[in-house]
Automatic annotation (TrEMBL):
Signal peptide as annotated in the record: 1-29
Name of the molecule in the record: Endoglucanase
Domain Glycoside hydrolase family: 32-466
Family: Belongs to the glycosyl hydrolase 9 (cellulase E) family.
Entry's EC annotation: 3.2.1.4
Amino acid sequence: MASSSSSSIIVCALVGVGIFLGHIHGCVGADYGKALTKALLYYEAQRSGKLPHNQRVQWRGDSGLQDGKDVGVDLTGGYYDSGDNVKFGLPMAFTLTMLSWSVVEYKTQLWAKHEISNALNAIKWGTDYLVKAHPSPDVLYCEVGDGNSDHACWQRPEDMTTPRTAYRIDDQHPGSDLAAEAAAALAAASLLFDFGRNHQGLYQNSVPVAGQFYSSSGFQDELLWASAWLYRATNDETYLNYLGGSGTTGGTRTMFSWDDKYAGVQILAAKLVLDGKVPSSGLWADFKSQGEQFLCSCLQKGNSNVQRTPAGLLWFQPWNNLQYVTSAAFLATVYSDYLSSKHASIQCPSARVHPSDLISFAKSQVDYILGSNPSGMSYMVGFGSKYPTQPHHRGASIVSIKRDHTPVTCHGGFDLWFNRNGPNPNVLHGAVVGGPDPNDVYWDSRSNFKTAEPATVTPAPLIGVLARLA
């Protein structure tokens, strides 16, 4: 996927979600271009491995340089998942797929904002790692590091003393979900797709340690997701036939995430219908209808609408809610453009929804994230005048190794830095924290990992939305 490819807007209300001006504080000019720049910068702070000469996040240093040594494979590089120092394959691959989708759809806008190179570099840093993690047709390394031992320590990546065990899936230990997601991320890695299809099973059954932190609920969605992307990348009818002959569309979903890709599959399939590449009947019609019904629910015009906070933010679950908000906003944005190109709209259960409605909805969610909310707080670190100062993140919360070379020990990090009541010494620009609670309240404390921890999956779909809005 990597090879395939100003303005401030006044925000004083959350358009399209019925918010009263009196409920909103901190109405500001949301500079989507600046937010885009910061979101891409965040990925440089998450890099593992030998940092490049053009590294912009200067408080980071080289780390994880021995990754893969235990298995005789070079597994350096890639991204640390969130506030920890583990490289989890499934969310990393989904992050790369969403970054790639953002660039595929909005490369012109990214070019205009002078961010195309940074976007492509963010993708390449991850896909280079995925290629190394797939050293032979039936082997894919799915995790480096151990979540339990890593979470028991509070160390910057440059000081890690925890085991860097490499875990893999292979023909005897299948992982269709991970293999297919990696294939989607790489778009043309058909061997990965074949591996996932031919050796079916959930990856956490083969690598239980991974399932403790990122347990997959199923693999059929990843196989369909991969087939949709591989068809789009190659025009090989094999992948289209797999998608159309699967016998399942997933039904109407309640979220779109690293674990549940059905809504994304449905929107990609709906594009095929709109483009006239597949029939507008049968299974293809179901794909399209169900994808649209998910968007109807997000816009509060469906039969089973997504819960909202009093100020209008979509509320999916307590743990890192904003990752589900950004992915839903992306689907609304991209589908708005798909519909606009065909002069089409959606017939929701309670009203007809036009492309402009979808964009207004996406904008409302992004505006909330960037500061148009009751707290007047931007949930993107480093954006605006008020943002979280204590995100749950090891590297950001500990003084840079370039300022103090004294090693931070496993438990010493808790005493010196985690329990310190003050702003993190390093600003994690562009990170999006988990977000507020169902009542629009946010507690800025690094100990509150459910809502204060950022993750790579959260800004990835936001890249496309910000590029479109900027």
